[in-house]
Specification:
- Helix content is about 45%, strand content about 15%.
- The protein is α+β, with helices and mostly antiparallel strands and about 650 residues long.
- The protein has four domains: about 1-175 and about 195-220, Glutamine Phosphoribosylpyrophosphate, subunit 1, domain 1 (4-Layer Sandwich), CATH 3.60.20; about 230-370 and about 485-545, HUPs (Rossmann fold); about 375-470, no CATH class; about 555-620, no CATH class.
Length: about 650
């Protein structure tokens, strides 16, 4: 596990500067505290920071082929690299290390850009092919590892985190209004957008190529798109057997490590099954790590403890309290752009606790998207079945629009007035268009009107799957947006903040392709979500774990945002600098703060979102210092 960074100048007449690559790498020191390597060749400069996991003594990067004509920097793990190496040796390739990084170089020699099709793992890498004058970047299929890039006037700058890209002296970031609006509505910014103009996320399952001054981005995998397999071609018993086989194998290959390894354990089905599979493969107890809250309705520790006892793990726990809100500046400095998912707090803490004992953990991420585990799926399926005629929906929309904010049932009526994708997007947004429109200043209201309605990033994915049943559509859209943009971003930044590698068996692309092809009634049946996975789980876990209601990784903000914390909220959101921001209607912001202080608990998530955003403005617009943060906080133009 590492962080990578680098750039390519427009022509060989402009050689790369090793000092710039070094400065970019220094911003992501936390991703790789064990080693650094930089390589400069004509217009190309690439570098990496290394967290040593395998090939501890021979895995230094950058790494080249036998002749030193093709070079790579790589972030991630390739789980099938040993089998690939054996095949490449048979084809005549010679290796000088035992690392998975060198395998990619020789795969590229053998297959060119199609090398990505042979890789099983999580990865983001950059390859410089000197003879062809070709620069090639790839990101793994489901987006476990991040990759950002800036492209302007023939200059390509890339990095594992935004801060590495921002460290290049030619990158002059400007606020991206579209990214800001997506953040305000969904609390994260979906790929390929970022909060900055001209800086993009390379989407999962995509590659980027630069040759002769021409840049192209292409998709190489979309295995979370159902292939049209006949739903009757597999029985439930056969599907259950195959899921068990693939989950065991996906877990087994992720136990490859030369450093201590453990697992996150929440007590939910996904993480519990991951630990159960690990326990099947290991002779010693699995080291497990869990986070809880003092507020009983949010605390999953009793369930995690029950699973740990049942599986005989070496269990570690930590209680998270409201003092964690002091982390806001540090969290923002790790994400580099506004990120409003408050579960970043427990993820930060569980990563910190785990890093005190191990260097690698396995997690249960991806199970909700793959096996249809979100409660919202059941709610939206019910509303889809009971969808009202257009005239009735229009009437409900008119009624809901006339009700004052905060009126009980207003949001429900508005949601029922919508249909299909619009209804679902409304249900997963925190600030629906009407409320967001009121919050924004006039210039940004016009920007919202320009991009909203179509909601282009989400709608492009709905358009691809309109022929599928409704549950399959929702799973696909969430995998393409929420999984990559929120869940995996959160886990990557919060774990790497503590130099901890996280591996997710449920995100194995072979398992994903297998389960995606199954009919929806294998995933949700009779009101039971994760039907097939829960049926398998009964073989490994206590019944009270399998049958308990899904809880999620929520944070008790409504309990934390009380008493003296109201003063912090007022001081932050109603400060003179916050009121002067050109993006918002200050009177509406003040109204939200007052309503929250008066006890409107549903506003806690919106308050958190605005606190994160104002903190980001302070760090990246006002360039305020951050205690104990990594990297610098460059200013941007608003």
């Amino acid at each position: 596990m590492c962080g990578i960074a680098g750039y390519v100048n427009p022509s060989a007449d402009h050689p790369a500067d090793e000092r710039i690559v070094d400065a970019m790498c220094q911003t992501i020191l936390h991703r790789g505290p064990n080693d650094q390597g930089v390589f400069v060749d004509g217009p190309v400069g690439i570098g990496m920071r290394r967290l040593s996991i395998i090939a501890l003594s021979t895995g230094h990067q950058p790494i080249s082929n036998e002749t030193g004509t093709i070079w790579i920097v790589f972030n991630g793990e390739i789980y099938n690299y040993q089998d690939l190496a054996k095949d490449l040796v048979r084809r005549g390739h010679t290796f000088k290390t035992t690392s998975d990084t060198e395998v990619i170089v020789h795969l590229y020699e053998e297959y060119g850009e199609a090398c990505v099709d042979h890789l099983r793992g999580m990865f983001a890498f950059a390859i410089w092919d000197r003879p062809r004058g070709h620069f090639f970047i790839a990101r793994d299929r489901l987006g476990v590892k991040p990759l950002y890039y800036w492209w302007r006037d023939g200059l390509l700058v890339f990095g594992s985190e935004l801060k590495a890209v921002l460290a290049h002296p030619n990158v002059a970031p400007t606020l991206n209004a579209e990214g800001l609006l997506y953040y305000l509505r969904y609390f994260y910014i979906p790929d390929p957008l970022t909060i900055f103009q001209d800086i993009h996320k390379l989407p999962p399952g995509h590659t980027l190529s630069l040759t002769g001054g021409r840049l192209s981005v292409r998709s190489y995998w979309d295995g979370c798109l159902p292939t049209g397999t006949d739903p009757q071609s597999i029985s439930e018993d056969e599907a259950l057997e195959r899921v068990e086989y693939h989950l065991k194998e996906a877990t087994r290959v992720r136990l490859m490590s030369e450093v201590p390894l453990g697992a996150f354990l929440s007590g939910g089905i996904d993480s519990s099954m991951t630990v159960a599979m690990m326990a099947q493969e290991q002779s010693r107890p699995v080291s497990t790590f869990a986070i809880g809250f003092q507020e009983e309705s949010y605390n999953e520790l009793p369930y995690a403890r029950r699973v740990a006892q049942h599986l005989g793990t070496d269990h570690h726990e930590f209680i998270v309290g409201p003092e964690s809100c002091d982390l806001i500046p540090r969290l923002v400095s790790h994400f580099d752009e506004p990120f409003g998912d408050s579960s970043a707090i427990p993820t930060y803490h569980v990563s910190r606790v785990a890093a005190e004992h191990v260097t690698v953990v396995l997690s249960g991420d991806g199970g909700d998207e793959l096996f249809a585990g979100y409660d919202r799926y059941q709610m939206d399926l019910a509303r889809q079945r009971r969808q009202l005629p257009g005239v009735a929906r229009s009437l409900l929309g008119t009624i809901s629009g006339r009700l004052p904010d905060g009126t009980k049932g207003k949001n429900f009526l508005r949601n029922m007035s919508l249909s299909g994708p619009a209804r679902y997007l409304d249900s997963i947004s925190y600030l629906p268009p009407v409320a967001l429109h009121r919050l924004l200043a006039p210039d940004y209201q016009r920007e919202l009107e320009r991009i909203d309605g179509a909601d282009p990033i989400f709608m492009q994915y709905f358009d691809r799957v309109r022929s599928l049943d409704w549950l399959a559509q929702l799973q696909y859209v969430d995998t393409k947006t929420y999984l990559a943009g929120d869940v995996l971003t959160k886990v990557d930044r919060m774990s790497m903040a503590h130099s901890l590698e996280v591996r997710s068996p449920l995100l194995d692309h072979v398992l994903t392709e297998e389960v995606t092809a199954y009919p929806s009634h294998f995933k949700m049946r009779g009101g039971v979500s994760k039907y097939l996975l829960k049926k398998l789980a009964r073989k490994y876990l206590p019944a009270e774990i399998v049958d308990r209601r899904k809880q999620g990784f929520g944070v008790p903000l409504e309990y934390w945002f009380t008493g003296e914390f109201h003063e912090y909220i007022r001081d932050t959101l109603l400060s003179s600098s916050a009121r002067a921001r050109p993006y918002f209607n200050a009177q509406v912001t003040e109204s939200i703060v007052k309503r929250h202080a008066a006890g409107e608990k549903p506003l806690s998530a919106v308050i958190w979102n605005l606190l994160v955003l104002e903190t980001w403005f302070q760090l990246y617009l006002d360039r305020a210092p951050v205690a104990q943060s990594q990297g610098r906080n460059p200013g941007i133009r608003g």
